[in-house]
């Protein structure tokens, strides 16, 4: 591994991987799950759906034909962002707060986490096309494989960004790389098995994670890549916590529309998807902040002040006055309506009976709201207590269970 630094030291591939990981999770959430075949590969229909979400129109019709897509999906499972339901086999998206917790980590921390899970795990084999069942998600990598991966990373981290790195060529002999093609760059391959691990890493996970970059490759033997270049993302493995995950310009206009210019990042998209509705998903993504999208954000636990702060941070500018005013008005109106799950509607014959129940210091806490002189909403689990209270006073109550009520 040698050569002078080149200009190819940017972070766009590492940023794109994190963005596509988020889009994979979001697609599973919007689709209410990604269906799997009996061999636990994505169905063709959901391959097409995910391919469209990622903007990858040049990959195959089946999941094994797109190694990067398969790696994304398996990695999302390893993180717990996608979870398997056995019957029928389906990948379900985790709760939004789990994605929020993942994206709350710094860009460098997420890169280190991804690299560590790949180095130590067998969930991604060096030869993913091998027939048979996929490796278990939590299975550890074989010690020899983990050591070869670690040695390769140590060698890459020691190089300056943009350095050229030789990729072991095919065919690989039993004794490793052919002597006449062995690179004189200070990196030794101990065996053919280790050379295969190095080759698979440089053309696969390390390339997809954005730690190295490889030229566009069709897969034909004549076009086989011999070199890749180290990326600035390797600084994360050196302990650099300041790597930027910079998104493109984001503009919020007075008509409540939002335009996000590339590059798009996972944290920025997550904030916008959590508080606005997508209107288009081309290279430039357009959103609209609506009363409903704000209500959904507030219902999920977001505070208006925090939401305004996140939007200001995305735009790096003060929000238009009309936007802040309208959001405040909508938030006020939303606070007057509260959804309550699992309530019981209590109905009594005489208003004085309900008056007496509300006058009882202990029983008054069972009532969420009095709807009329003879009707009230009971809190979850309080129906039996209210029933007993009324029976002790010679009353025969009637009530109706309601799944969701407005307060």
């Amino acid at each position: 591994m040698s050569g002078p630094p080149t200009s190819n030291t940017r972070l766009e591939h590492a940023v794109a991987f994190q963005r596509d990981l988020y889009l994979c999770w979001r697609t599973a959430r919007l689709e209410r799950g990604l269906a799997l075949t009996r061999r636990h590969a994505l169905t063709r229909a959901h391959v097409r759906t995910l391919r469209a979400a990622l903007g990858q129109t040049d990959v195959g019709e089946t999941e094994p034909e797109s190694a990067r897509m398969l790696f994304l999906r398996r990695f999302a499972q390893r993180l717990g962002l996608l979870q398997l339901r056995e019957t029928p086999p389906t990948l379900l998206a985790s709760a939004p707060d789990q994605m929020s917790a993942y994206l709350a980590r710094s860009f460098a921390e997420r890169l280190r986490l991804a690299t560590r899970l790949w180095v130590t795990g067998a969930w991604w084999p060096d030869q993913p096309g091998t027939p048979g069942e996929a490796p278990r998600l939590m299975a550890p990598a074989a010690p020899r494989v983990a050591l070869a991966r670690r040695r390769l990373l140590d060698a890459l981290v020691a190089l300056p960004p943009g350095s050229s790195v030789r990729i072991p060529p095919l065919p690989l002999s039993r004794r490793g790389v052919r002597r006449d093609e062995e690179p004189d760059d200070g990196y030794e391959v101990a065996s053919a098995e280790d050379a295969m691990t190095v080759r698979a890493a440089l053309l696969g996970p390390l390339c997809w994670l954005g730690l190295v970059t490889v030229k566009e490759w069709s897969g034909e033997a004549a076009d086989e890549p011999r070199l890749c270049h180290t990326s600035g993302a390797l600084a994360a493995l050196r302990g650099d916590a300041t790597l930027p995950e910079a998104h493109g310009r984001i503009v919020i206009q007075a008509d409540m529309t939002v335009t996000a210019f590339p590059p798009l990042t996972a944290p920025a998209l997550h904030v916008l998807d959590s508080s606005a509705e997508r209107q288009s998903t081309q290279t430039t993504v357009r959103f609209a902040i609506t009363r409903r999208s704000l209500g959904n954000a507030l219902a999920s636990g977001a505070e208006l002040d925090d939401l305004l702060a996140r939007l200001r941070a995305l735009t790096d500018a003060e929000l238009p006055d009309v936007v802040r005013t309208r959001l405040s008005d909508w938030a006020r109106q939303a606070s007057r309506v509260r959804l309550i799950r699992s309530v019981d509607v209590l109905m009594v014959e005489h208003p004085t009976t309900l008056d007496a129940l509300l006058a009882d210091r202990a029983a008054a806490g069972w009532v969420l709201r009095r709807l009329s002189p003879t009707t009230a909403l009971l809190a979850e689990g309080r129906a039996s207590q209210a029933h007993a209270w009324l029976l002790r006073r010679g009353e025969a109550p009637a009530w109706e269970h309601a799944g969701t009520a407005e307060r």
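Residues 1-8, 174-186 have pLDDT under 50 and may be disordered. Residues 12-30 form the longest helix (19 residues).
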